[in-house]
């Protein structure tokens, strides 16, 4: 019974649920979901503590928190905090809340963490270049049939599949 | 047309942020339900061993898309005021490739 509770929902059911949340976002706010933009807001918030002049001078950073605006008083930041809460609720209901490091059998925890940092840094850089990540571009932009979003989505899969063989030891 | 609600009703910032938080809860809930909390499960898609990501993602896209088309046809949702991601071809391609590399190396 306990083992059964730990199994994930049907991906199609989870997909419909996720789609309805995305639809609600479009219906209420006029835009979709996001993730990487909130990290950008967090970075700008930290930078603003140390160098508010630089935030004001740089047009891109100013957009997130120039002048008197608080970079953290942002829709996507609050949404991302909600993501953490929602994930925790789902995990708790299914008995999946525990400390773990997911990796393939051929590497250890430490190696996995090193690659996680490298991969995360690359992903963050790529997300800024493409104006969004898998949430804001691939999922939300995909649902509104943005041409650029579909190109970026296909590029993400292309990049990952192209390197999958090289990094197979991490996962299988 | 009475939606998108934020555009037709001009919400206060606090209300808007609260909505963001609530929508985020739904987002996180269904991501975790589908198994997106496990990086190995996500990465195994690149070895054709677990295609959860595709199933969840494209089901979600089709669901939201269909909903928007119907809401627009019912005269509820003004589809022209929906944000559509602008297309910047090369940054989109290069950024996507770098994200893909980061995804298979980092797992998310």
Structure description:
The complex is a heterodimer of chains A (172) and B (108). Helix content of chain A is 69%, strand content 0%. Chain A has helices spanning 2-5, 11-29, 36-50, 52-57, 59-65, 75-93, 109-129, 134-143, 147-164. In chain A, 47% of the residues are buried. The mean pLDDT of chain B is 95. Chain B contains five helices and no strands. Chain B is globular. Chain B has helices at residues 5-9, 13-34, 39-43, 52-73, 89-106.
Describe the structure using short key phrases.
heterodimer; A: 172 residues; mainly alpha; B: 108 residues; 5 helices; 0% strand; globular
Classify the helix fraction of chain A into a percent range: 55-70%
How large is the share of residues in beta strands of chain A? under 5%
> Sheet with the most strands of chain A?
none
Low-confidence stretches of chain B: none
Summarize the structure.
The complex is a heterodimer of chains A (172) and B (108). With 172 residues, chain A is mainly alpha-helical. Helix content of chain A is 69%, strand content 0%.
Write the layout of secondary structure elements.
The complex is a heterodimer of chains A (172) and B (108).
Chain A: H1 2-5, H2 11-29, H3 36-50, H4 52-57, H5 59-65, H6 75-93, H7 109-129, H8 134-143, H9 147-164
Helix pairs in contact in A: 3-6, 8-9
Chain B: H1 5-9, H2 13-34, H3 39-43, H4 52-73, H5 89-106
């Amino acid at each position: 019974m306990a083992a059964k509770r730990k199994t994930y929902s049907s991906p199609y059911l989870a997909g419909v649920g996720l789609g309805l949340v995305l639809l609600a976002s479009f219906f209420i706010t006029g835009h979709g979901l996001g993730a990487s933009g909130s990290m950008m807001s967090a970075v700008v918030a930290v930078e603003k503590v140390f160098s508010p002049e630089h935030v004001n001078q740089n047009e891109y950073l100013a957009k997130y928190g120039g002048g008197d605006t608080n970079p953290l008083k942002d829709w996507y930041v609050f949404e991302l905090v909600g993501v953490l809460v929602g994930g925790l609720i789902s995990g708790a209901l299914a008995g999946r809340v525990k400390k773990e490091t997911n990796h393939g059998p051929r590497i250890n925890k430490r190696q996995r963490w090193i690659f996680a940092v490298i991969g995360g840094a690359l992903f963050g850089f790529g997300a800024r270049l493409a104006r969004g990540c898998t949430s804001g571009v691939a999922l939300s932009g995909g649902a509104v049939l943005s041409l650029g979003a579909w190109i970026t989505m296909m590029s993400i899969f292309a990049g990952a599949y192209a390197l999958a063989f090289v990094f197979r030891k991490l996962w299988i | 047309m009475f939606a998108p609600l934020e555009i037709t009703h001009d919400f206060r910032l606090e209300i808007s942020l609260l909505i963001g938080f609530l929508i985020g809860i739904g987002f996180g809930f269904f991501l975790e339900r589908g198994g997106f909390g496990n990086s190995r499960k996500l990465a195994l898609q690149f070895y054709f061993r677990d295609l959860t990501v595709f199933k969840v993602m494209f089901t979600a896209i089709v669901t939201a898309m269909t909903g928007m088309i119907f809401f627009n046809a019912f005269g509820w949702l003004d589809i022209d005021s929906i944000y559509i991601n602008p297309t910047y071809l090369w940054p989109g391609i290069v950024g996507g490739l770098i994200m893909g590399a980061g995804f298979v190396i980092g797992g998310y």
